[in-house]
Give the backbone structure.
Amino acid sequence: MPRVRAGSITLNYDRQGSGPPLVLIPYLAADYACYAFQVADYAKHYTCISVDLRGSGESDKPAGVYSTEMFADDVAALMQSLGVAKAHVAGLSLGAATGMWLAAKYPERVKSLSLHSAWPRTDAFVRAVVQCWQLSAKAADNVAEMVIQAIFPWCFTPELYAQKPDYIQALGDFVRGRPKQPLAAFTQQSDAVIAHDADAQLGKIRAPTLITFGRHDLVTSTRFADRLRNGIGSSELHIFEHCSHAALYENVPEFNETTLRFLHQHND
């Protein structure tokens, strides 16, 4: 995969497809390949630029404190290095938190914004959940196994586990096959999740914005919907009724259809 200097670090990214640029920002502990089920459809219409955030995949993993604002600065620097003046931007969870900062700080770079399983400011519940993941990662000394055993149950409904155990197994095998994230880098990324606060930035977002939640998501539940919907001027809300935190895997057809419809509407 190509690597490019973005500001003070080197970031790894993947580019597929043709058409208007679409930047895809991954979630906690994931690399660019986490959007594989989406890029298969998106790349028919868009140039998909999927990035490894600092601390994950093949991107640099410098020491120090990470923040969602810092991740947004990195993505803006990546776009500049690639000569991408403006793009559709999409992210899930940590990727959505990063997208908020990107759209608020660099409005000229964001054509549309898609925020999936997002939250404006970390509350006590999100903090407790993420701290539990940190403890699990330290205990296992293996980030991939922690993701499968500790994070997966927050991402999928009990029905998916019951009805499609082979699918859950395949997703776990996929996680195990990706570049290993060091424990220190996971801790830095997850500390950024705990510290996330873009509440005051919402009013600065000018791009048309799609906000989605899974009806059964407990971590970033629909408790955050009103604040995001009311805080971002040009926004619309969609609920995936039978999904939890990761609708992009739990209902791939509906997720892709919904997100592509939004992108097409804002392609002028």
